[in-house]
């Protein structure tokens, strides 16, 4: 997804940035940059069959997460849905790629689910910002600041998880798992705000 509205950290390409969408929409794109993106797009199309074959089993089924959320009566129960597809994802990957190291399977599954939560985060943040802008500039700015502060907290918490779980496999898994969980937590929070506003 490239540099997403949503992420600003070196961990597996996730970069939540509440300011970026509005800024980049009006930024002129240099010709060299457009040419590079065109070349990358052509390369991606050429490699798509190979990438699909290699990564097919790592893609989580969003219906599993949505089903979990729909059957959850409270926000606490909804938070338990974060990570609920990891076992089924690893099982599919083990069947499709038996030679892949178990830790690599785990990391790919965490990343795949994190992308789903990231998309949900971006959708809910954009809708909530639209509502708040219609009400007042002050409310919109407060929402933006809240997201900035959340990013700082998320990054600090997940860096701490990595450090305290050791420099090897434990830390390498703990940080992306923390990012997934914190993103899910923020999705659930923004969803509750939208619900309070009649969405």
Written account of the structure:
This protein is an all-alpha fold and 199 residues long. It has a domain of 134 residues. 73% of the residues lie in helices and 1% in strands. The protein has 8 helices and 1 strand, in the order E-H-H-H-H-H-H-H-H. Helix 5 crosses helix 6. The chain is globular, with a radius of gyration of 18 Å. The two termini are 27 Å apart.
Number of strands: 1
The whole-number mean of residue pLDDT values reads 80
What portion of the residues fall into strands of 2 or more residues? Answer: under 5%
Series of secondary-structure elements, N-terminal to C-terminal = EHHHHHHHH
- Our measurement of the CA-to-CA distance between the termini, rounded to an integer number of angstroms, reads 27 Å
Tell me about the largest β-sheet.
none
Helix content: over 70%
- Look at the helices and sheets and give the structural class: mainly alpha
Q: Count of helical segments?
A: 8
What is the radius of gyration? 18 Å
Principal-axes geometry comes out as: globular
Low-confidence stretches: 1-13, 21-31, 41-58
């Amino acid at each position: 997804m490239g540099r997403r509205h949503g992420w600003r950290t070196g961990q597996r390409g996730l970069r939540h940035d509440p300011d970026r969408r509005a800024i980049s929409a009006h930024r002129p794109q240099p010709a060299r940059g457009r040419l590079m993106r065109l070349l990358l797009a052509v390369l991606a199309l050429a490699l798509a069959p190979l990438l699909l074959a290699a990564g097919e089993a790592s893609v989580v089924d969003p219906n599993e997460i949505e089903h979990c959320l729909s059957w959850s009566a409270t926000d606490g129960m909804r938070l338990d849905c974060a990570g609920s597809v990891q076992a089924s994802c690893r099982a599919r990957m083990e069947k499709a790629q038996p030679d892949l190291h178990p830790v690599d399977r785990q990391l790919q599954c965490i990343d795949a689910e994190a992308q789903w939560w990231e998309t949900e985060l971006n959708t809910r943040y954009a809708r909530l910002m639209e509502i708040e802008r219609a009400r007042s500039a002050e409310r919109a700015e407060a929402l933006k600041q809240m997201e900035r502060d959340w990013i700082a907290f998320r990054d600090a918490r997940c860096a701490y998880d990595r450090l305290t779980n050791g420099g090897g496999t434990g830390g390498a898994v703990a940080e992306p798992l923390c990012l997934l969980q914190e993103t899910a937590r923020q999705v659930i929070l923004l969803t509750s705000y939208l619900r309070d506003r009649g969405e």
